[in-house]
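Help!! Second protein's tokens look totally different from the first
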Amino acid sequence: MGGAGLTAERPRDLRELLSRVDLAELVSAFGSRLREAGLPVTPEREGRFARAISVAAPLVTDELARLGRATLTCEHEQLLLFDRVFQQVFGGLLDPGEVRGDQSSPKLPVPAKRRAATRDRPTGPGPRSDLGPAADEDQAEDVAVGLLGAGERLATKDFSACTEAELEEIVELIRRLPLSLPRRRSRRRRISRSGDELDVRATIRRSHRTGADPVELVLRRHVSRPRRLVLLADVSGSMEPYTRVYLNLFHGAVRAARAEAFVFATRLTRLTEELACNDPDQALQRAGSRAPDWAGGTLIGSALEDFIERHGRRGMARGAVVVIVSDGWEGGDPDQLGRQMLRLSRLANRVVWVNPRSARTSFQPTTAGMAAALPHVHTMVSGHSLEALRTLLLAVRGESRSGR
């Protein structure tokens, strides 16, 4: 979906503009811009923002900004940064006078603090920093709507068939993909009005206010926490067309969900610390220099055994969602791979295998490595394109049990 479809006929108000675009993609793209500027926006907050827009149906951008402040920020110090990015993306979309029916009404002036803030461009790619109410309206609309449909023509294109320019565009889109993890029930409990268990100690303490008469019962319930996400990517020569894309996905997961990231070819290398860097280009450069076996052979079974012995068995993989990105071409002993996959499946809550080759209609898991691993995989997806990556995200959440 591009900006041309909206500039042909000017929307009367923000509600009409929002009805023409994919709200989820717009919110995800805006959240990505906020994160690039340094605001810690989570996928859960993005979801609340989208629901607030659906319920409130704002008519002007000021109303949209108020909804964003309420759902996407949690501290007073974050408001100025939020207003700056919001003004850059949405500042020139609509004339508030048009919504009131007064075509000659001037646009609302930008507050002095916000005018000063818009001169500073946030880190990372983004629209022009001078975009505001005084800018050309059609250009402003193109900038905002351009966040939405840039990847439509690339949605189903295999990463290995993309040009360098297309990969740059895909990488930028991947950095905006929302990641949501399944939750697990913790042993810890906390006080809650909707709790299902009486907190005797807290009830007795509170009864001291009422002469030792327990007038108010204190309840508690289990706390739910997101499951740990562990990512392992094959960076051998056969996976080279997909390595760059998945490292960018890993970078986002490490920063947004505190995931653990590893790569392997002939040996296992942990890259969590390297990929935690804010600058994605610097993070990938550090990751590339950290793994000495890049684009080499493949010893999946040996790498998995190393992971389980050094990290997984000690707690990292217990109850976690483990994602393995590999085409299954095993250069070592397939029986070793089968044994380690069995151990991993017993430790993890879910094992998701991403095999880009499985997207081909003629694909059959007949290679020795893939055949040994598949019985111990909960879900296998292809992950070869942007559309397939959405299936992967569903599989991570546990909403998809299969899909090529």
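Here's the second one for comparison:
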Amino acid sequence: MNDSWQQFLHMGGYARYVWSAYGIAAAVMLANVVAPIVALARIKRRIAREEFVDD
């Protein structure tokens, strides 16, 4: 059982490329979630500042 996991994680000698591809894909998907949230927060802060200045 333990040997099958090691074989799986080793990926037939291509583990470095396979796992790095998974890591890059996960990072891109995370960025696709986080970036709009950060942008929305910036927009809200800018709008709040502009409304405060106009008063």
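Reply: Different proteins will give different token patterns, so don't panic. The chain has two helices and no strands.
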